[in-house]
Write a structure and sequence with these properties.
Shape: elongated
Strand content: under 5%
Number of strands: 0
Radius of gyration: 18 Å
Oligomer: single chain
Distance between the termini: 58 Å
Number of domains: 1
Structural class: mainly alpha
Number of helices: 4
Largest sheet: none
Helix content: over 70%
Order of helices and strands: HHHH
């Protein structure tokens, strides 16, 4: 039973990772691409690691997978934030059809 559940969860994770790849290819600017990559790949990789934990239990492999989940969460969100902030400060333009630019007044003056 654990193998079936873990296979389904790993499959869901692979699907989310695939959608993250599609977002990197299809979305128009760096900000949308990073958002798609961060959200979907984080959730997808969490699912894969959770599936590995379910399949192998609390063995060496399962514990490593369990330890990687919070590490992945903090590392990917902080890295995406730093990349987006650096891109904005460096002056990379938003997509032409973007509706709101909340940081226009904050960062353009510096």
């Amino acid at each position: 039973m654990n193998e079936i559940i873990s296979t389904v969860i790993i499959g869901i994770g692979v699907a989310f990772d695939f959608f993250g790849i599609l977002g990197l290819i299809r979305l128009p600017d760096v900000y949308n691409r990073l958002q798609a990559a961060t959200k979907s790949v984080t959730l997808g990789t969490w699912s894969i690691l959770l599936g590995i934990l379910i399949r192998y239990g609390f063995t060496g492999v399962g514990v490593k997978a369990l330890l990687c989940i919070p590490l992945l969460f903090f590392a990917s969100t902080v890295a995406a934030h730093a990349l987006i902030r650096g891109s904005y400060i460096f002056g990379i333009k938003l997509w032409d059809k973007s509706v709101v630019d909340d940081y226009k007044d904050v960062w353009r003056g510096k």
